[in-house]
């Protein structure tokens, strides 16, 4: 059964945790879908882990649509959530609604996500009014890396923690479907989760959220970039891939691969005829 935003709501009500992983292509999306992951996030983190950028700020709407379409094809059951990239909604509410619509119509997303709290409530309200479910991403907002001067835990002092609570309450009021909490203290995230009626999904926000999300290259140790304290490596796939690539190179060089079992045959008589016609 295809998951919808109602699935997320039911999970919160029934106190069952929501699972979300990032996905950026058909093959990985299908593997995750087959494994029972509830939601696939086509995150703008694709700028870093798929395109090799230093941050997410260079990611475009075209990038997001391209990857979202591929993920949607592999997501039979999982809910597909796609990020609105930097500058696709900041300049105007028109941009926000128009680009949210493009992610749904062209990217085949079911839900969009944007980074922002109180400052973006009008955008959230108008996207929701256009019948597009929207997740508000608060706490650490990676698209603000230039203004923040780096990726840091948010909400550690009284005022910063209060600001995140006010953001959460405001985006719920504005019509957000769920809240993504990134890099905030666990007790604060748990408190917000109890305070709001919409589901919270955490990354670096402790166990008290209604669900968890991770960037899949992080949880499989595939990405060479900086890793955070909150990341757990579930399997050393990066090392296994490197070993497999090295084995391939060695076998090709030593003429062990391809072996006869990997080759297609042709009738010997045909080869004799061809050789007699073409031999120098
Ligand atoms: O883009 C992304 O992958 C995200 C996660 C960090 C949650 O927003």
TrEMBL record:
Q: GO terms for CC?
A: cytoplasm
Enzyme active site: 182 (proton acceptor)
The organism's superkingdom is given as: Bacteria
Is-annotated flag, keyword Cytoplasm? yes
Q: Per its Swiss-Prot or TrEMBL entry, what cofactor is needed?
A: Mg(2+)
User: Does the keyword Protein biosynthesis feature in the UniProt annotation?
Assistant: no
Q: How is the cofactor bound?
A: Binds 1 Mg(2+) ion per subunit.
Spell out the subcellular localization from the entry.
Answer: Cytoplasm
Q: Name one Pfam family in it.
A: Pantoate_transf
Q: From the UniProt record, list the reaction(s) this protein catalyses.
A: (6R)-5,10-methylene-5,6,7,8-tetrahydrofolate + 3-methyl-2-oxobutanoate + H2O = 2-dehydropantoate + (6S)-5,6,7,8-tetrahydrofolate
The record's annotation in InterPro entries points to: Pantoate_hydroxy_MeTrfase, Pyrv/PenolPyrv_kinase-like_dom, Pyrv_kinase-like_dom_sf
In its UniProt record, a GO molecular function of this protein is:
magnesium ion binding
Q: Which residues cross the membrane?
A: none
Q: Which GO terms describe its biological process?
A: methylation; pantothenate biosynthetic process
Q: Which residues bind Mg(2+)?
A: 44, 83, 115
Per the UniProt record, which EC number(s) apply here? 2.1.2.11
Supply the alphabetized keyword list: Cytoplasm, Magnesium, Metal-binding, Methyltransferase, Pantothenate biosynthesis, Transferase
Main function: Catalyzes the reversible reaction in which hydroxymethyl group from 5,10-methylenetetrahydrofolate is transferred onto alpha-ketoisovalerate to form ketopantoate.
* Oligomer status and interactors: Homodecamer; pentamer of dimers.
Quote the PANTHER family the UniProt record gives: 3-METHYL-2-OXOBUTANOATE HYDROXYMETHYLTRANSFERASE
> What HAMAP family has UniProt attached to this entry?
PanB
The UniProt family comment states:
Belongs to the PanB family.
The name of this protein is: 3-methyl-2-oxobutanoate hydroxymethyltransferase
Q: Give the organism's phylogenetic lineage.
A: Bacteria, Pseudomonadati, Pseudomonadota, Gammaproteobacteria, Orbales
Query: What's the gene?
Result: panB
């Amino acid at each position: 059964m295809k998951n919808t935003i109602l699935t997320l709501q039911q999970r919160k009500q029934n106190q069952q945790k929501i699972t979300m992983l990032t996905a950026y292509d058909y093959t990985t999306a299908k593997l995750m879908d087959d494994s029972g992951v509830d939601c696939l996030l086509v995150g703008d983190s694709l700028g870093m882990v798929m395109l090799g950028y230093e941050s997410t700020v260079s990611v475009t709407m075209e990038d997001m649509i391209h990857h979202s379409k591929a993920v949607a094809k592999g997501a039979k059951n999982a809910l597909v959530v796609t990020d609105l990239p930097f500058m696709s909604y900041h300049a105007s509410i028109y941009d926000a609604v128009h680009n949210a619509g493009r992610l749904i119509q062209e990217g085949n997303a079911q839900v969009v996500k944007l980074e922002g709290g109180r400052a973006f409530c009008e955008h959230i309200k108008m996207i929701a009014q256009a019948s597009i479910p929207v997740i508000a991403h608060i706490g650490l907002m990676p698209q603000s890396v230039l203004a923040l001067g780096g990726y840091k835990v948010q909400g550690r002092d009284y005022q910063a923690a209060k600001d995140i609570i006010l953001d959460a309450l405001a985006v719920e009021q504005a019509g957000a479907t769920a809240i993504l909490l990134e890099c905030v203290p666990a007790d604060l995230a748990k408190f917000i989760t109890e305070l709001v009626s919409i589901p919270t999904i955490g990354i670096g926000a402790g166990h008290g959220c209604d669900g968890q999300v991770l960037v899949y290259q992080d949880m499989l140790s595939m990405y060479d970039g900086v890793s955070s304290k909150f990341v757990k490596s579930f399997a050393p796939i990066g090392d296994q891939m490197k070993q497999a690539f090295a084995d391939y190179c060695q076998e090709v060089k030593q003429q062990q691969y391809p072996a006869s079992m990997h080759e297609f045959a042709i009738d010997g008589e045909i080869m004799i005829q061809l050789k007699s016609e073409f031999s120098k």
